[in-house]
Amino acid sequence: MLDRFRNWLVPAILLSPAAMLGAEGLTLPLWPDLKVEAGAGDESVTERGRNGKQDRSFKNVRVPTITVYQPEKPNGAAVIVCPGGGYGSLALDKEGHDVARWLCGAGITGIVLKYRLPRPELSKGEAPWPLQDAQQALRLVRSRAAEWKIDPRRVGMMGFSAGGHLVSAAATHFDEGRKDAAGDKVASQSCRPDFAVLVYAVVSMGESVGHSGARAALLGKSPDSAMIERYSSHLQVTAQTPPCFLVHAKDDKVKAENSVLFSEALKKAGVPCELQLYEKGGHGYGLGINGGEVATWPERCLAWLHAQKFLDAR
């Protein structure tokens, strides 16, 4: 079943005169009026692909965007995809554009979030930049739902590794939109994802389970206990946390306990969830195109989305 979702041609669509349209879909700025801080440095890209396969790693991302892939026959569901990279880079193809194209082949509008990489010293007193961008992406997508043939009640998120942590944070830190923003079509939208998919995700910011590099990049070298608890997503789960599908391999360098703790917290709160725990697979396998038992997770994810009625019109 997976093979038939891997290759397809996404039609070019022009939805906004401000958009940049290319082979990678429709790209829009997340914050049109964003001012990049002085001395931020230039974004850099490293190509890691082999045998003609594109696999770029982006560093020093300071200008966030979304790239929209719209299927020929949309089913109304949309997924915002958050690539990983330890909060120090973004694996924008393997865990971003490739995933959005796969979603598009299943009738789901796939939206790649190219989020700002964190600078905790510049975001003191506010949410980390990646979380701000994830929340804004959810608001922006809902504000364009009618235009993009999306059901605003079926907008989910999918994240890989540190991108999975970002999705878990978005799933546990949200609001229904600014009450004083009635005239602002974006700011007045909810930033709660309707569902979340976490693939080999970092969830905890604690020392025993979490990933030290991701923690330092997101929260700084010496975060206090309150910050560690706030962004350890398994400690922030409530009954309002959206349904989740989780994927992890037991031999992953990012401990599978991250996903186990999150799934246990979800079950305790009465939130629907499914955890696919594999014996082998390691880390960074994306859609599992290199084979092995982890290659079954995309099929199972789609089956779960169907079972939860997120792929069905409401």
Write a concise synopsis of the structure shown:
The chain has helices at 93-105, 129-143, 162-170, 212-219, 225-230, 257-268, 297-307, and strands spanning 20-22, 25-29, 44-47, 56-59, 65-69, 78-82, 90-91, 109-114, 155-160, 196-199, 244-249, 273-278.
Provide an overview of this structure:
It is a single chain. The protein has one domain: Alpha/Beta hydrolase fold, catalytic domain (Rossmann fold, 3-Layer(aba) Sandwich). Helix content is 24%, strand content 18%. It contains seven helices and twelve strands. Helix 3 links the parallel strand 9 and strand 10.
Major sheet summary line = 9 strands, mixed
Name the overall outline. Answer: globular
The CATH C-level name is Alpha Beta
Q: Structural class of the helix and strand makeup? A: alpha/beta
**Level-2 CATH architecture:** 3-Layer(aba) Sandwich
